[in-house]
Design a protein that fits this description.
Blueprint (H helix, E strand, L loop, with lengths): L1 H10 L16 H4 L21 E3 L2 E3 L9 E9 L20 E3 L7 E7 L4 E9 L7 E6 H7 L6 E8 L1 H6 L14 E3 L2 E3 L3
Parallel strand pairs: 3-7, 4-6
Antiparallel strand pairs: 1-2, 3-8, 4-7, 5-6, 5-8, 9-10
Length: about 190
């Protein structure tokens, strides 16, 4: 029952900052300085949030082992409405941390998320379930969405799960093989990640 309650909490509307799920009280400039999640090998938890579940009549079957996963689709973000509430694995959601929710990635996991429109990449810790909207593949924390310049709308991303072998070998630290990311301009200040 506890798992069902946690999953139900994650199933609510996350509309990318629309309505009551908007920005927090930290300036956007501070969010652009939040470092990526630091991948480490964490055991994939049996049961709990890694068991098959159903939301809105759709059945989800999480991956049960340390396997690679690559996908492209739409990303949304969630913020103030869920800040401090338990994630699917029971940790408090922190909208200012580099985290994400995914419907089937084993929890916890780490993933590289790339915005192909501007070349920005981040690494997030996946510790929650969602999004539960057709076409959306990942729900980013507010800080993660800010770093990718995705706060204005749902947008296309590429997602790659980092396996335990990727983390152990350091392969996840690969150099960017895409065009350099475009700088962001916030309140007249330019933030260039290069």
């Amino acid at each position: 029952m506890v798992i069902a309650a946690m999953l139900a909490g994650c199933a609510g509307p996350r509309l990318g900052g629309v309505g009551s799920d908007g920005a927090g009280d930290r300036p956007l400039a501070d969010l652009l300085l939040v470092p990526d999640a630091d991948p480490r090998v964490e055991p994939i938890r049996n049961g709990g949030a890694n068991r098959p579940y159903q939301i809105g009549g759709v059945r989800y079957v999480p991956l049960a082992s340390d396997v690679p996963l690559r996908e492209s689709g739409l990303a949304s973000w969630y913020g103030r409405k869920f800040h401090g509430r338990p994630t699917s694995i029971g940790e408090p959601y922190d909208m200012y941390a580099m985290t994400a929710a995914h419907p089937t990635m084993p929890l916890p996991s780490y993933a590289r998320v790339r915005n192909p429109a501007n070349g920005r990449e981040i690494v997030v810790r996946v510790n929650d379930r969602g999004p539960f909207y057709p076409g959306r593949i990942i729900d980013l924390s507010y800080a993660a969405a800010a770093r990718l310049d995705l706060l204005r709308a749902v947008a296309a991303v590429d997602v790659e799960r980092l396996t335990h072998d990727d983390i152990r070998s350091g392969a996840w630290r690969r150099g960017g093989d895409a065009r350099p990311p475009a700088p962001l301009v916030v309140d007249g200040a330019v933030f260039d990640p290069r």
